[in-house]
Every structure is written in structure tokens, then in C-alpha cells.
Amino acid sequence: MSLMREQYRKNHTNLSVGFIVATGSSGQAYEIMKELGTNVQLLPNHTTPQKSDTYFNRKMKTNRQLVFCSLAVLAEERTPLECLDAFGATGIMGLQWAKHLLNVVRVTITDISESCVKMIKENCKLNNIRVDGGTRVPRVSDGANGEAEGVPIATVEVAKMDANVIMHLRPFDYIHLDPFGTAVNYLDAAFRNVRNLGIISVTSTDTGSLYAKSPNVTLRHYGCHIVRTEYYKELAARMVVATVARAAARCNKGIEVLLAVALEHFVLVVVRVLRGPMQADESAKKLQKLVHCQWCEERVFLKQGNMVDDTLPCNCHGSLPGKTAVQLGPLWSGPLFNTGFLRRMLSAAMKHSMDDIQPLVKTLICESECTTLKSLVHGPSALTNQGKRKIGDESGNLVKKLKSDTSLDHPPFYYSIHRHSIRGMNMPKLNKFLQYLTEAGFRVSRTHFDPTGVRTDATLLQFKAVLTKYSIPTCTNASTTQTSMSMEKTV
């Protein structure tokens, strides 16, 4: 019976993602998988990057959709866009860009592997997309008519080239880096030729070093000292942003962080490039050391000229023996989200029917504003008004529009309500606790980094005070007292 259940589960999963088994021109069996209306061929060993050049990970669907929405937002600002998917593998990401955004983007997909390039070209044929041989032709704006008449709906340039080489050779408006592991080896080349106000998105999958499981590798790749903390995912995101900011500064460029997402399998950072030494200096100023208490896990960014132990608001240094504080970093101390950009990403997700990531983007919007989801009553109306404003602002100054996207900086890091719960007490429900913190006068929101995390401008002592006030004794203590009283009466 268990084998039957397992077989049913596999069949159901395969059908849900559009799984088909076929045979290629070389006689080798492959799978055809459909995602966001885009078909790609997959070899049987596509889940093992060490054994297959055409690696494909179904768990990265959220990452691909977030990257797509960020590109769609940039396409609203200027067209046409020169876009680069520097690590094509199967080519699914670049093909999704071309298939859904059509003539507003000029997509280039590269990979160093010959077999990957061959697979990408075959996947272009599967999706009725023309492979560019070096000279671009006018594209068909109406994808439906193009497919009906057999005319390619879009054109994609596919090249066998190292990512560093093509980024040095040509300028791009949008660059996506998604190597196997860390992306630090490609950041200098990415910032060398990216256009002003362009966007670079970086996906890092080396979670062992990012999440403090291999601190020696972390120091080698990112130049940061970190330890395992309750807020380790945001620590990883700020560490990647710091590395990106340093690479940009070496090219006399600054960055504006549009979003940073850290989930189980990856860390995604999307930044806008701001050209000029002044912008580079402003970004460099936001690279600071973090002071972390090893006992209570309170943390605060270290300002220049301050003593380490005097910086922390907790009193562990005076009440506990030994060294209580350590310095982590250097890390990015600025905001991780841009509210206006995230709102336009949500609009793009709705437009392209990406239902899977809409709850995540809404959480990011709340996190960027440090508000609860209930307080976000102006979500749909703001999206509608934003669309109306766009029509009138097309001839306006783009820089002014970008400045209007900025919002009040959110508090850095978060506290886990489970980590700081009081022993022998039942803590309130998380949403209720958020309400109690708001009533106490603090900014508060949930965070996508941790389902039990609370982002707030309250200190840990204030956080614990509110938690203690609204926690009630456990039922076990009460029942134990009643049992002892009944036993005394019996005696």
C-alpha cells in the first residue's frame, strides 16, 4: 500500500508540473517540463549538478519568478532592455523573459558548457523562439499571432562564453548571476559595464558558508566574520549585499538595494546601480561591523569611536563573567527593501498570474514598511494609482521617480518569539503579540526570514518586557498546585 501511495504521489507531481518523457534527436531520453508557460528539456540526471551540465532545480521556481518580476519592473522604466542570463544551464530563465516580455527586452543567454548551449537552442525551438545568429530582426509584438503563423514570437541570443568575458565585452541594463555556489568571482565584471540605473540580481546557493556552517569559507569568499545566530538568514543577506557594494565601489559605483530574500535554498539580492564616486562613497559608509551579544543575542551596528561593550543596550557585560560581545561583519547596515519597487513587483506578479510569490511579495512590502498585513489597507488601490501615474510620468525625470520609491528605513534584524519565550509561561499568539507591541508604541512587522520572527525597533529588553506582560502561566503549573491541594485534603 505504501508503494502505491508513493507511485501516486510521483505521478501527481509529474502531472502538476507538465512532465513528459520524450526522445531527442540524438536518441537520448529526456523530460519536458513546463513552468510559467515555458517548456524546457531536462536530461534524466538534471538534479545532480556534478553529473549533468544542464542542471535544473525545481525548488528555485520562487527565485526565477522574483527575478522575472524585477526585470518586468525595470522594463516599465525604459525599453528596450539589454538583459543577460549569464549562467543559462537549460535557459529557462532567459526564455521566460523573452516569451512574456517580448519586444521590450533583448535577451542574451550564455553558458560555458557546449552541451548547455546545445540544450538552450533546442529549448528555444520548443518555445517557438528564434536563436539569434548575431544580427537581430524586428520582433513580432503579438505572440499569439506569431505562434499561429509559425513566426517566432521572440528572438534570443545564445552564446558559448564565460560570464566574466561577456560582461567585460558588452554593456547591459539587467544582469542576473546564478552560478553553482557563490557569485563573488563574477561581481567585478558585472559592475564594470552595467549601465547607469541598471539592475544586477545575484542568486547565491552556497548556504553552507552563508548560514555560518563553514565560517572559514565565509571569511575566504566574503571577507566577513560571522557566527550562528537567531537572525542568521538576514545576516547572510546583509553579508552578500556588503560584498556586492564593495565590488561596485571598486568600479566607482554605488548601489541601492531593491530587495533581499533569504530562503532555505538560496539568497537573492537585487540592487540598482548608481554611477559616480559620490554614490560609491555613500554605499561604502553603510558597511559597518555588528556587535553581537553571545548570551542574549542582542545586536547593534557599531558606530565609529564607540567601545564594543558600551554599544550594546543589554546589561550582560556587567552581570555575566567573561567576554559577552563579539564583532561580526563588516555587513550592510542600510535598508534591504525598496517599498515602491516591491509594489510594482506585486503588480507584475498579478499581471503575469504568478500566484505562488504574491504572498511572499506582500510580506516583503510589510517588512519594508515595518507594518502588519492588516495595516496594508492601501495595497490594491496604491497599485491602481501607480499604474495611472506611470502614464503621465513617462516623459518625467526617472531619477525623481526613483527617489519617490524610497521609504522610511526599516529596523535591522528581528527577534524570534520562540527564542525569547519565558520558561513556564504560555506566550501569546504571534499576531496578538504584534498588536501588543504596536499598542506599546513600537514599529512592528513579521519577516520572511523567519516565520516566528518579529521585526521591530524595540530593544530586546523592551521586547521581553511586553512578552512577559502578556504571557500567562502554563496549565501544568496550575494542575500541579490543584493536585497537591487535593492530596493534602485527603491526608
Automatic annotation (TrEMBL):
GO biological process: tRNA N2-guanine methylation
Top EC group: transferase
Catalytic activity, reaction form: guanosine(26) in tRNA + 2 S-adenosyl-L-methionine = N(2)-dimethylguanosine(26) in tRNA + 2 S-adenosyl-L-homocysteine + 2 H(+); guanosine(27) in tRNA(Tyr) + 2 S-adenosyl-L-methionine = N(2)-dimethylguanosine(27) in tRNA(Tyr) + 2 S-adenosyl-L-homocysteine + 2 H(+)
Family to which this protein belongs: Belongs to the class I-like SAM-binding methyltransferase superfamily. Trm1 family.
Keyword terms: Isopeptide bond, Metal-binding, Methyltransferase, Nucleus, Phosphoprotein, RNA-binding, S-adenosyl-L-methionine, Transferase, tRNA processing, tRNA-binding, Ubl conjugation, Zinc, Zinc-finger
Protein name, per record: tRNA (guanine(26)-N(2))-dimethyltransferase
Protein's UniProt keywords contain tRNA-binding: yes
EC number in record: 2.1.1.216
Compartments where located: Nucleus, Nucleolus
Segments traversing the membrane: none
GO molecular function, one term: tRNA (guanine(26)-N2)-dimethyltransferase activity
Principal subcellular localization: nucleus
GO cellular component: nucleolus
Pfam families listed in its UniProt record: TRM
CDD domains: AdoMet_MTases
Keyword Metal-binding appears in the UniProt entry: yes
UniProt cross-references to PROSITE patterns, sorted A to Z: SAM_MT_TRM1
